[in-house]
């Protein structure tokens, strides 16, 4: 059951309140204190179970605080079957409950709602709809319904308590024997055995004489038998008189019945089985009429459908179905071709952009238009360092010329110094300086000629490669690479354009074939779908026309047969009335009533005669019928007095005989050695049986203790196992195991950190509340296996959880709420996503 909308007319602080948009899963509803979260929870509880609150129960009656109008409201729900239902409860007391379907029809009342909920009020209040104050109340576990679901699934022992069973075994064994006891059964039997042995010894020594008592008792018994015989005779005569008194009104009633029978004339007997035959003929007539009406309605329906379909006509589209099917088969191919064309055009656009970008980058080095990439000879020449042309400023230095220049300059300087020292005149220095200048001039002239040759060779290489003269040598390798890339892109672009032209031509052919179909218009994709729909509609229309013709052909003989059957049933009914000798059914019923009246009188007279026979017998004496009521009553009183006197005398004799026989029996029992020996043997056998029972009880107790220990290790009720799994998820594995102790009946939790077991009372408040949430979720899972899932309402249950466990509980609730609904009422927390808020 999923609540879709909540509408509260008047309940507590709510007046004309509406909560819509609820769905399957967790529905958070937030609001601060005094905003009505608990009021909303109580409204849902009491909508299901009634508004009335018992006096002195301590529960809030939630009177309407504002507004006017009917007390209560309604909820709109969707059941697991998909049926929409509105549950409304309004008015004083418990309120008037109405269940309404989506079409406005009534779906029932309290009994239907109880069957739909399939849980008790205490179970829903303690498990499905819980506030923070009710969460950790352990008293809810004592509810009979909850205990049956919680513990009943674990061990099949009904109402038997294993601790009570163990105590009972100990008690039974202790009743028989305790090593230091004095009042237990085996000790008492030992004492009785000793006493009987002493009595047997005394009885063997002395036996009293009791024959006088036996003789007196025999005389009194003879007198007693005589009085009892007189009492039986008086009782038999009294019973006969009472029967005669009871027979007086029976005789009178029998006389009146015989007079009435004599006044009723006899009628001719009806044909045997006439009533049953009339009923059968009426049923056959009604059946034939009903069948004729149904077949006539079917014939009329077939005629109307044939008129709606109209006459058959030729359709050119049916002749073109093979062509249409061929084009539909190629439709997916056409879509792929369109996608391929789109992709190719996008690639062509991208390649055009890349080519333009490369041309823009190469224009400063190659000019416009951009030349093709250089041939292999130029590339080989450039890639060979020994043959690569470079400008003078980037070429390797001329070490040979520099060496000659250095040697010449040194020689000139040495000659000038030698001449100067030899001539001791400036003329020598002048000659040396002149020689040095000559050497320097020769070196400069050689360098200039070399630079011109290198620059000319580099410019020639650039012209052959199609590059501008100002292109630096460092960019030549990059320019060659970009030219090769540009040429590759242009070749790839040309291939793509060729493929685009091919695809466009194929698509034109497909469209041309499509337009040749009858009724083709628009785009092929939508047009083919439209033509297929028209073709299928025409096929359906023709198949329906054929089917209707076949059905009408089959219906015609059935309709004629129904008409003949109706005619035969009418004729059979007329013949029946003629055989009975009546004009119609009314006269037949009148004669039947008269026959029944006479039969009833005869039956009543026979019953009274049987009653008279039971009272007086088959052949009563002739004189008894003439005795009047007064004489019989007087005789009855006399017989009653005689019977009372005899009963008193018999009672006195019985008491006297009984006292004599009791005294004789006591004397005989006290002096009978055989009886004492039998009692002694019986006491010995009883001691043996009790000793055997004592050993059996002690062994049963030992086996029970071993079974309890093994059960607690290996098996637990299904609800507790599921609750333990959820509790472990809530606590991040801190408490890995929850089980019920069969010895004490308590719930025990195993702490994974310490390995110790804790009772419920030893848990912190937050941990206890997490355990109670897990128990309730497990109970809900168990109870909803074969019943309608009900909405779950939790009010501020996570207030005492730390953030980590709170997130774990909320995540588990999200998983649990699949195929269920949880209304999660809580205070808004900072940083959490916005939820539905109360007004």
Largest sheet: 6 strands, antiparallel
Distance between the termini: 25 Å
Strand coverage percent: 5-15%
Our count of helices gives 23
Strands side by side in the biggest sheet: 2-1-4-5-6-7
Name the overall outline.
Answer: elongated
Helix content: 55-70%
Classify the secondary structure makeup into a structural class.
alpha/beta
- Rg, nearest Å: 61 Å
Low-confidence stretches: 152-159, 833-839
Rounded mean pLDDT is 76
| Oligomeric assembly | single chain
Structure summary, number of beta strands: 14
How would you sum up this structure, described in words?
It is built from 23 helices and 14 strands. The longest helix has 57 residues, at 524-580. The strands form 3 sheets. Strands 2-1-4-5-6-7 form a 6-stranded antiparallel beta sheet. A 5-stranded parallel beta sheet has the order 8-12-13-3-14. Strands 9-10-11 form a 3-stranded antiparallel beta sheet. With 839 residues, the chain is an alpha/beta fold.
Which terms would index this structure?
65% helix, disordered C terminus, alpha/beta, elongated, single chain, 839 residues, six-stranded antiparallel sheet, five-stranded parallel sheet, 23 helices, 14 strands
Brief account:
The protein is of the alpha/beta class and 839 residues long.
Provide the fold topology.
Blueprint: E1 2-11, E2 14-19, E3 25-30, H1 37-49, E4 72-78, E5 84-90, E6 96-101, E7 106-108, H2 110-117, H3 121-128, E8 129-131, H4 132-135, H5 144-151, H6 162-176, H7 185-205, H8 211-263, H9 274-309, H10 316-319, H11 321-329, H12 331-366, H13 376-383, H14 399-423, H15 426-465, H16 476-515, H17 524-580, H18 585-616, H19 629-670, H20 673-714, H21 718-730, E9 735-740, E10 747-751, E11 757-759, H22 765-783, E12 792-795, H23 803-816, E13 821-826, E14 836-837
Parallel strand pairs: 3-13, 3-14, 8-12, 12-13
Antiparallel strand pairs: 1-2, 1-4, 4-5, 5-6, 6-7, 9-10, 10-11
Helix pairs in contact: 6-20, 7-20, 8-18, 8-19, 9-17, 11-17, 12-16, 14-15, 21-22
């Amino acid at each position: 059951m999923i609540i879709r909308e909540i509408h509260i007319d008047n309940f507590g602080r709510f007046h004309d309140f509406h909560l819509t948009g609820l769905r399957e899963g967790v529905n958070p509803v937030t609001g601060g204190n005094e905003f009505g979260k608990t009021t909303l929870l109580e409204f849902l509880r009491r909508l299901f179970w009634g508004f009335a609150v018992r006096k002195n129960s301590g529960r809030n009656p939630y009177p309407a605080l504002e507004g006017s109008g009917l007390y209560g409201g309604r909820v709109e729900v969707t059941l697991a079957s998909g049926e929409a239902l509105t549950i409304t409860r309004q008015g004083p007391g418990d309120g008037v409950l109405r269940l309404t379907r989506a079409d406005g029809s009534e779906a029932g009342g309290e009994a239907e709602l109880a069957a739909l909920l399939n849980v008790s009020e205490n179970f829903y209040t303690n498990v499905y709809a819980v506030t923070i104050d009710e969460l950790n109340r352990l008293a809810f576990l004592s509810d009979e319904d909850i205990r049956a679901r919680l513990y009943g699934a674990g061990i099949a022992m009904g109402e038997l308590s294993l601790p009570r069973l163990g105590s009972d075994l100990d008690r039974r064994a202790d009743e028989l024997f305790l090593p230091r006891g004095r009042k237990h059964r085996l000790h008492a039997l030992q004492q009785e055995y000793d006493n009987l042995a002493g009595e047997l010894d005394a009885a063997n020594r002395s036996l009293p004489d009791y024959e006088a008592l036996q003789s007196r008792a025999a005389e009194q018994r003879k007198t007693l038998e005589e009085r009892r015989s007189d009492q039986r005779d008086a009782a038999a005569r009294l019973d006969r008189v009472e029967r005669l008194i009871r027979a007086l009104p029976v005789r009178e009633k029998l006389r009146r019945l015989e007079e009435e029978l004599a006044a009723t004339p006899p009628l001719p007997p009806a044909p045997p089985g006439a009533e049953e035959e009339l009923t059968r003929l009426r049923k056959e007539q009604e059946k034939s009429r009903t069948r004729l009406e149904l077949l006539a309605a079917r014939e009329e329906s077939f005629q109307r459908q044939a008129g709606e379909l109209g006459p058959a006509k030729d359709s050119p589209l049916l002749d073109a179905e093979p062509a249409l099917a061929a084009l539909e088969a190629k439709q997916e191919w056409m879509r792929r071709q369109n996608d391929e064309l789109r992709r190719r055009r996008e690639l062509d656009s991208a390649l055009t952009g890349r080519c333009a970008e490369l041309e823009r980058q190469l224009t400063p080095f190659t000019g416009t238009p951009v030349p093709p990439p250089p041939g292999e000879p130029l590339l080989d020449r450039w890639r060979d360092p020994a043959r690569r042309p470079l400008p003078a400023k980037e070429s390797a230095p001329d070490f040979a010329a520099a060496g000659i220049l250095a040697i010449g300059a040194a020689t000139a300087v040495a000659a000038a110094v030698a001449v100067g020292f030899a001539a001791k005149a400036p003329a020598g220095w002048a000659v040396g300086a002149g020689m040095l200048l000559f050497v320097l001039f020769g070196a400069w002239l050689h360098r200039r000629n070399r630079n011109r040759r290198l620059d000319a060779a580099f410019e020639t290489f650039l012209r052959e490669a199609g590059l501008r003269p100002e292109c630096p040598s460092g960019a030549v390798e990059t320019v060659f690479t970009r030219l090769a890339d540009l040429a590759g892109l242009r070749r790839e672009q040309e291939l793509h354009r060729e493929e685009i032209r091919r695809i466009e031509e194929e698509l034109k052919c497909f469209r041309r074939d499509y337009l040749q179909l009858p009724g083709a218009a628009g785009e092929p994709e939508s047009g083919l779908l439209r033509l297929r729909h028209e073709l299928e509609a025409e096929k359906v229309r023709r198949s329906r026309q054929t089917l209707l013709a076949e059905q009408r052909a089959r219906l015609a003989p059935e309709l004629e047969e129904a008409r003949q059957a109706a005619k035969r049933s009418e004729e059979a009914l007329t013949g029946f009335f003629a055989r009975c000798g009546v004009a119609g059914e009314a006269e037949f019923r009148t004669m039947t009533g008269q026959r029944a009246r006479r039969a009833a009188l005869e039956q009543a007279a026979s019953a009274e005669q049987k009653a008279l026979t039971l009272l007086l017998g088959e052949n009563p004496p002739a004189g008894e019928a003439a005795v009047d009521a007064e004489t019989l009553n007087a005789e009855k009183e006399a017989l009653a007095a005689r019977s009372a006197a005899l009963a008193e005398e018999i009672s006195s004799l019985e008491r006297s005989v009984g006292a004599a026989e009791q005294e004789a029996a006591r004397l005989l029992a006290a002096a009978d050695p055989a009886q004492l020996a039998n009692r002694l043997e019986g006491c010995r056998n009883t001691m043996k049986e009790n000793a055997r029972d004592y050993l059996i009880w002690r062994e049963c107790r030992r086996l029970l203790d071993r079974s309890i220990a093994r059960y607690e290790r290996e098996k637990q009720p299904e609800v507790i196992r599921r609750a333990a799994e959820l509790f472990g998820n809530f606590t991040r594995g801190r408490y890995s195991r929850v089980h019920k102790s069969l010895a004490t009946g308590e719930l025990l939790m195993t702490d994974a950190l310490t390995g110790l077991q804790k009772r419920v009372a030893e848990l912190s408040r937050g941990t206890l509340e997490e355990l109670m949430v897990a128990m309730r979720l497990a109970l809900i899972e168990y109870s909803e296996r074969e019943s309608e899932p009900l909405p779950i309402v939790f009010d501020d249950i996570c207030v005492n959880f730390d953030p980590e466990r709170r997130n774990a509980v909320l995540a588990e609730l999200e998983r649990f709420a699949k195929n269920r609904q949880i209304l999660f009422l809580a205070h808004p927390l900072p940083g959490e996503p916005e939820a539905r808020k109360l007004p």
